[in-house]
Specification:
This protein is of the alpha+beta class. The protein folds into 3 domains: 85 residues, Arc Repressor Mutant, subunit A (Orthogonal Bundle), CATH 1.10.10; 85 residues, SH3 type barrels (Roll), CATH 2.30.30; 74 residues, no CATH class. The chain contains 9 helices and 11 strands. Strand 4 and strand 5 form a beta hairpin.
């Protein structure tokens, strides 16, 4: 098969996604989503059938292509998010807090990451709500699901730290010499992987624990989540686990099963 373009590949993924979740597909589906002609849509479906032989069969009476019992995902993961992305009207999302990220802050930070240079910022914190200036040497941006952070070597603290972008008032290039210790390869907590072990809250009764274990597809009553050491707390927040809740308050579905192993990485 000849090499295909990015746009053709996107249409092939759409064909597989729609087929997988709807059980069938026709040319009109592709025409409406991508704004292409019937000829192009028909060609894409035939190309997909060549690439994923045995996945689809044409029913003339229905004028549609139906999935077969041998269907296997070839160009997609089969995740429901792929289907929802094709038609946002199929789902509704809970509103999340919106934290203002100023372009005049984000752009210089990203440029500093790309150039591996320093950047002068004015940062607000609970200890210093008026803000203080410091020079950072950033190496990556992190999205926790709620906030954007930049991971950087801090010349004030002489260590790698996370900085909330919404708390950065100023970001301008710095001509400070890049110290060798600011290299991403020296960020031990960033490069170290940690296994977080979660379990159903023991305060629950056996039926409730079984429900949670099933919901999270636990193996041997444990859910293992691998995280960078620097992101352990963010990961726990995503799973709504409070590591300080040692007594296992009933409101918390999951609790830590290996607190001693990860205590060093908690705030």
């Amino acid at each position: 098969m000849s090499e295909i373009t990015w746009y053709q590949q996107a249409r092939l993924r759409a064909i597989e996604t729609l087929s997988f979740w709807q059980g069938k597909i026709n040319t009109r589906d592709i025409m409406e989503i991508f704004g292409v002609s019937r000829v192009i849509a028909q060609g894409d479906i035939h190309r997909y059938m060549e690439q994923a032989s045995g996945n689809l069969i044409y029913h003339r009476s229905e004028k549609a292509y139906f999935v077969t019992s041998q269907f296997k995902n070839q160009v997609t993961s089969g995740g429901i998010d792929e289907w929802v992305a094709l038609d946002p009207s199929l789902s509704e999302y809970v509103e999340k807090p919106q934290f203002s990220i100023r372009l005049e802050v984000a752009r210089p930070l990203i440029q500093a990451i790309n150039k591996r240079t320093g950047i002068l910022i004015k940062y607000l914190s609970m200890k210093d709500p008026e803000g203080s200036e410091r020079v950072l040497f950033p190496h990556i941006m992190v999205y926790t699901g709620f906030r954007w952070h930049v991971r950087a070597w801090c010349s004030t603290r002489n260590e790698f730290r996370d900085f909330n972008l919404a708390r950065i008032l100023l970001a301008v290039p710095s001509d400070s010499v890049t110290p060798p210790e600011s290299s991403a390869t020296k960020d031990v907590h960033w490069n170290q992987k940690i296994d977080i072990q979660l379990m159903a809250n023991p305060v629950m009764n056996s039926a409730e624990r079984s429900l949670i274990e099933s919901e999270f597809n636990m193996v041997n009553k444990r859910l293992t989540v691998t995280s960078r050491a620097a992101l352990v707390m963010y990961t726990l927040q995503a799973y709504q686990v409070d590591p300080a809740n040692i007594d296992g308050n009933f409101k918390q579905r999951l609790v830590l099963a290996n607190l001693d192993d990860i205590a060093h990485f908690l705030w």
